[in-house]
Design goal:
With 377 residues, the protein is α+β, with helices and mostly antiparallel strands. The chain folds into 2 domains: 90 residues, no CATH class; 268 residues, Endonuclease/exonuclease/phosphatase (Deoxyribonuclease I, Chain A, 4-Layer Sandwich). The protein contains 11 helices and 14 strands. The strands form 3 sheets. A 6-stranded mixed β-sheet has the order 4-5-3-2-14-13. Strands 6-7-8-9-12-10 form a 6-stranded mixed β-sheet. A hairpin with a 4-residue loop joins β4 and β5. The protein is globular, with a radius of gyration of 23 Å. The termini are far apart.
């Protein structure tokens, strides 16, 4: 009986170790995907979507082995986590006890970035009160600079809701850059509202229908920040496809019934990764030219640990990684989480004192992200 129990224990222990080897290899593959152009290895980019799972599994195995007789096995997850450490903080916000000051500072800059989903324009039936409700959230947060992605104006440049908000909320400057249209009379693009003067505005094409917005924010005491706003290539997944993803997650039978669709879906995803790669490279190159401290507000349509994220971030700091908690979900239409909206900043000149995001599913398919900065001496 003792021999049988010993055999069962050994079998269980070795099976666990084999599982640890598997998830370590999985995490290393995710790290490789984060640092490899998707155009070089087809379908590799898709692996980055799964990075949170092997990361969590390796952390779990680390603690498991520390409480067993074979503590040396903990060296495997430790080594894997050390190699792949660049994936840890961007995916899991560990700043549970960190201070978080969202009050605008005299020697600072508070920025809010939000993919506003056309201010409700894409939702049918259209609720005409949506823009006002969304702007009330912004007014409550009082950002010095408000960046809107998927903002819209009419072809004559008018937008009654935006004009009303612009006049009432203390914003002195407004810039808009369109990259698409919606019917014959509506432009869709990125907009910036600022309480400080803006200069050196430029639209930089980085792909068909994709532009990088650049402008300098002129702050008191002769301080300047170069602001970039970008919305990269999406997966072009229709609402019906998103609903199918949720069904597949609940029942694998749906996956069997939709094999052909699954193949085309993977192809569509791979194509999006390949298209985003050069967009990310060009965006990073433009930011590298900046003579001033740099901030990027972006909907990357990609997750932390992806090649897009790694390339654009470079040596900048991710505001969520510095102050965020949990998984930081910003895209709220696919559960459990997708963080694809970011604020990156120049950590040599700017100190982050607060970060915030809130669920705004009733207004947009994206949640806003807000960062509060002060200047380092």
């Amino acid at each position: 009986m003792k021999k049988l129990l010993a055999f069962i224990r050994a079998l269980f222990s070795n099976t666990l170790f084999l599982a640890n080897i598997s998830v370590s290899a999985w995490l290393l593959l995710c790290w490789y995907a984060a640092n490899t152009n998707p155009a070089d290895v087809p379908y590799l980019g898709i692996v980055s979507l799964s990075a949170a799972f092997p990361l969590a599994a390796n952390i779990l195995f680390l603690f498991v082995w520390l409480f067993t007789r074979k503590k040396w096995r903990s060296l495997l997850p430790i080594a894997t986590l050390v190699i792949c450490h660049q994936l840890l903080l961007p995916i899991f916000g560990l700043n549970i006890l960190a201070s978080n000051n969202m009050t605008p500072q005299l020697n600072g800059l508070k920025i809010m970035s939000w993919n506003v989903h056309g201010l409700g324009l894409f939702d049918k039936p259209v609720d005409k009160t949506t823009p006002e409700k969304m702007f009330s959230i912004v007014e409550k947060e009082q950002p010095d600079v408000f960046c809107m992605i998927e903002f819209y104006t009419n072809t004559d440049g008018s937008n009654k809701e935006a004009s009303k908000y612009f006049n009432n909320a203390g914003y002195k400057e407004y810039r808009f850059m369109y990259d698409n249209d919606y019917g014959a009379k509506i432009y869709i693009g990125n907009a910036v509202f600022s309480k400080y003067p803006l200069s050196n505005f430029e639209e930089i094409p980085i792909d068909q229908y994709i532009k990088l917005m650049r402008c300098d924010v002129n702050l008191p005491n002769d301080k300047k920040v170069r602001l970039f706003v970008v919305h990269l290539q999406s997966f072009l997944i229709a609402d019906k496809e998103k609903a199918l993803i949720e069904e597949i997650k609940k029942s694998t039978d749906k996956l069997e019934q939709n094999k052909e669709y699954s193949k085309s879906f993977l192809t569509k995803m791979n194509n999006a990764y390949v298209k985003r790669a050069p967009q990310a490279i060009l965006t990073r190159a433009e930011m590298a030219k900046s003579p001033y401290p740099t901030i990027l507000c972006a909907d990357l349509n990609d997750v932390p640990g992806s090649y897009t994220y790694t390339t654009i971030k470079g040596d900048m700091k991710d505001a969520f990684a510095a102050k965020g908690k949990g998984l930081g979900r910003t895209y709220n239409k696919i559960s459990p989480t997708l963080r694809i909206d970011y604020i990156f900043y120049d950590q040599d000149y700017l100190q982050l004192i607060g970060y915030k995001s809130m669920n705004t599913e009733q207004y947009s398919d994206h949640n806003p992200v807000i960062s509060n900065f002060i200047f380092k001496k």
